[in-house]
Amino acid sequence: MKIEQIYTGCIAHAAYYLENNGEAALFDPLREVQPYIDRAKKDNAKIKYVFETHFHADFVSGHLDLAKKEGATIVYGPTAKPNFNALIAEDNQEFKVGNYIVKVLHTPGHTLESTTYLLIDENGKEHGIISGDTLFIGDVGRPDLAQHVIADLTEDKLARMLYHSLRNKIMTLPDDLIVYPNHGAGSACGKMMSKETTDTLGNQKKTNYALRPDMTEDEFVNELLTGLTTPPSYFPKNVLMNIQGYESLDSIMERGKKALTVEEFQTISENNDVLILDTRKAEDFAKGFIPNSLNIGLESNFAMWVGELITDIKQKILLVTYPGKEEESIIRLSRVGYDHAIGYLDGGFDAWINANKKIDVVNRIYAKDLIQQRENNQSLLIDVRKKSEFNAEHVIDAINIPLNEISNRLSEFPKNKPFVLNCAGGYRSMIAASILKQNGLSNFSDVIGGFSEIKKTAVPTTEFVCPSTLL
User: Fold this and answer.
1) Partner residues linked to 360 by β-bridges
2) Burial of 264 (0-12, 13-18, 19+ CB in 10 A)
3) What residues does 276 pair with on adjacent strands?
4) 412-439, pLDDT tens digit by residue?
5) Which residue from 304, 320, 400, 419 could staple onto 390, CB 3.0 to 4.6 Å apart?
């Protein structure tokens, strides 16, 4: 069977391309649809269907642009109620893609409309399942997201639906089927996903905690709901965009790809409703940046942190990027629904420097300097990693203020004595540094290389603590 996984690591997302006999289908495509269109053209195929496993929370899907540009039919599973033209399939309904069959299996639980698509080849053999967020490798979809959009759909109700969907629809399928999930490790749509992005269903039955055959419904609900963290704040906003519709990416690109001179950029940036977003790497941002900029580097989980930290999804954004990275920045903003980039600094930060404009910097220190300071009782260490990372291992006496909580905990940062920031490797702590700078704090330093460098450098090793033991 010709099925291709198209994986985007920065948001841990998998779309799927299916083609046979000149017809193609996409499953859970991203917002930027041109690569899918180009892929179909390479096969001399027409995109016939866009299958959606559910209304996604962690990204804005490309279904509407694919339907508009390619004439493809958008398909959702039972109970879906989108505000645009789509085919709402019935349970067990079959669709033809060339000589292949795509069979609808309604599997509510992650959301009410969640659907798994069973792939059947030209010989009638069942090949695999596009499982969306119903079944991941090593995990299943969290059932607590829909209630942020529909209050009556509680996590307990959906967890119980998911228990029955897995046992009545998924676990009854043949062991040799390939599982093709919508996400891998790093996604906030589950809690313990594997780094692997496909597996056999048979192996998942043996290794996935949620598929234990002797599990009662109550045991399943308890294990599934235990340890769930608060979902990112942008998730409900993305769900609504996927339900209600959105502006074409072409229009968003046209608005955002506006090259601004230094003077134009400065004038617009002085408006209170405009945010300067600098997408350069942490080390370059630290050496110099436009005052009041927020730094979220493209090289890591850019879209996730944009969604987590920029509270207004309609925020007007001015971009500072490396020359040539403007389009990528706009596309990656749009993946999570931030469609209001209004231009970028032509020539990047160098243009600002060459114009002799005011800049700010972030002081950075090496791990050995931090250790020396702590030996002399000269610095407070604030660790901005997730609580789970901090609890697993951290520097003794460090204070944990996770990055996504900083804006609500600014009063906990000292204003009259120096402190030091660290995360795992320096990416998140520089985001934190930019937020603190925006709020008038400058009495801090950032550890180059973060906790990983502190561990390598520290002597003695008892500088660290993890649960119940000293390393």
Assistant:
1) 289
2) middle
3) 318
4) 999 989 999 999 999 999 999 999 999 9
5) 400
CATH number for the region 3-237 comes to: 3.60.15.10
**Under 8 Å between Cβ of 260 and 268:** yes
Distance (Å, whole) CA 100 – CA 248:
31
Which 8-state DSSP code applies to residue 190? S
Secondary element (H or E) of residue 372:
helix 367-375
* Residue 211 DSSP code: G
**CA 95 – CA 151 distance, rounded (Å):** 33
Pick the CATH number of 247-354 from 3.90.1010.10, 3.40.30.10, 3.40.50.300, 3.40.250.10: 3.40.250.10
**DSSP class of residue 135?**
B
Q: Which residue's structure tokens are 């920031």? A: 421
**Distant-in-sequence, close-in-space partners of 307: CB < 8 Å, separation ≥ 6:** 232, 233, 234, 235, 238, 336, 337, 338
Instruction: Give the DSSP H or E segment for 181.
Output: strand 178-181
Cα dist. 274→18, 108, 224, 359 in Å?
42, 40, 41, 18
Label residue 447 exposed, middle or buried (CB < 10 Å: 0-12, 13-18, 19+): buried
Asked if 86 and 76 count as a contact pair (C-beta separation under 8 A), the reply is yes
Residue ranges covered by each domain of the chain = 3-237, 247-354, 364-470
Q: Are 315 and 338 in contact (CB under 8 A)?
A: yes
Q: pTM of this prediction? A: 0.91
Architecture of the domain delimited by 364-470: 3-Layer(aba) Sandwich (3.40)
| Same-fold call for 3-237 versus 364-470 | no
Dist. CA 44–CA 102, nearest whole Å = 20
pLDDT in tens, 113-127: 999 999 999 999 999
